[in-house]
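call fold target=Urease accessory protein UreH-like transmembrane domain-containing protein
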Amino acid sequence: MIDPLFISAFVMGLLGSGHCLAMCGGIASSLQLAANKNRAVSFSVAYNLGRALSYMLAGALVAGISSRFAAQNTTISIALSFLSGIFMLLVGVYIMRLAATLQWLEKLGKTLIWQHLAKLNRYLLPVDTTPKALLYGALWGWLPCGLVYSALTWSLTSPSALHGAGVMLFFALGTFPAMISVGLVSQRINTIFNHVWTRVILGSVIIWYGIYLLIIATDKLVH
């Protein structure tokens, strides 16, 4: 039976695909346009697999560290659950574009991580082979993204590094349908995901899930 957290991570990736298109859609689309028709799909799949591998590595690192502390202290475990719930609320508001609730986190990630990794781009351009597309995706998997960072807060509550990697894998899989097809129907997808009612519905679902997580965390605290 699939872990419910994996399913939730997949759904979050699916619901947040609109944000992924805004962040990485242009790159994914350009890869498909740059490749000939026979290689367009393989380039796109390789790019997204590379992105998923980076997400999994980040999830494993975060979960590996947090699980050690959580196992020694129940209070830390509950605090991490609260953090996950709060970030879900922030993601919901962010997707609905009511406020730039995660912009500060993306700026922090850009300062601490991305400005250094971005220099590696020159070694992979032009992306003219499938291995390069895989590595390019792995590199861009570290692009500062509030949605990804929020998914990582779920990895914080994972009992092991392997489980944390699994959470991020399912999150990545949720983003695959939109990201892989972006070069083929990019205009149509962008129109759908950027429609005001689409953003409101998707954001509301995530907010309600955040409230659910906070209720569970509160219940753990009380009992």
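return ok
The longest helix spans residues 37-72. DSSP finds nine helices and no strands in the chain.
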